[in-house]
Amino acid sequence: MPGSLIHSYDRWSTALEQAHVMASAAELHGLMSGLLSGGLSAKSADFIAVLYDFLNDGQALPAALKADVQQLISNTAISLQSGEYDFALLLPNEDDALVERLEAMVEWTQAFLVGFAVQQTDLSLVSEDVREAVEQLTEVTKVDLTTSSDSSAEENEEAYYMVLEHIRLMVFSCFNDVGQKFQDKGPVSKTLH
């Protein structure tokens, strides 16, 4: 995938489907964003292994897709670290139906929370702001996609973009407070005691 297409949801969806990966493009990007925000360095040798465990039952990806995934990890880390607040969620574009975009947004957020929890298993150790961000992101995952709304399409679009912006701010809160501090550490053990 050329650099300009690295953030194309449709392109990622096709590539994942062709590789028989059960996860969506939103889940892939949400998980890697959560891992980065939880403190796993993009350069960690364990990063790809953690993605394989959660997204592909531990199975490796085809070489070309693995290279694209590594590039997406790097691009995501750069956008989180830049301080420019240009980080974007990998979601369907605005031409897709709102319900599809909402579903992908919920999948992205759920995967982000999983990735963050892999690294930060004890939320009592993070700041109140991060705990609040995690709570608010958890609320996003509870959006009822089946409810029909009496709101106009324009109001629904506006609400979608407001929630999307709120998610971005919560991600930055997690990354700036936690992810930046732990970027050189490996994954926390997944063993439960």
Helix segment count?
Answer: 7
Indicate the radius of gyration in whole angstroms.
16 Å
Coarse morphology:
globular
The major sheet is characterized as:
none
> Roughly what percent helix?
55-70%
- What series of H and E elements makes up the topology? HHHHHHH
Instruction: Kindly estimate the percentage of residues that lie in beta strands according to DSSP.
Output: under 5%
Taking pLDDT < 50 over at least 5 consecutive residues as the criterion, the unreliable ranges are 1-5, 184-193
Structural class, by secondary structure, is mainly alpha
**How many strands?**
0
Mean pLDDT: 85
- N→C terminal distance: 42 Å
Question: How would you portray this structure in words?
Answer:
The protein has 193 residues and is mainly alpha-helical. The chain is built from 7 helices and no strands. It has helices spanning 9-18, 25-38, 46-55, 63-81, 98-119, 128-140, 153-179.
Task: Note the main attributes of this structure.
mainly alpha; single chain; 7 helices
Outline of the structure:
By secondary structure, the protein is mostly helical. It contains seven helices and no strands. The termini are far apart.
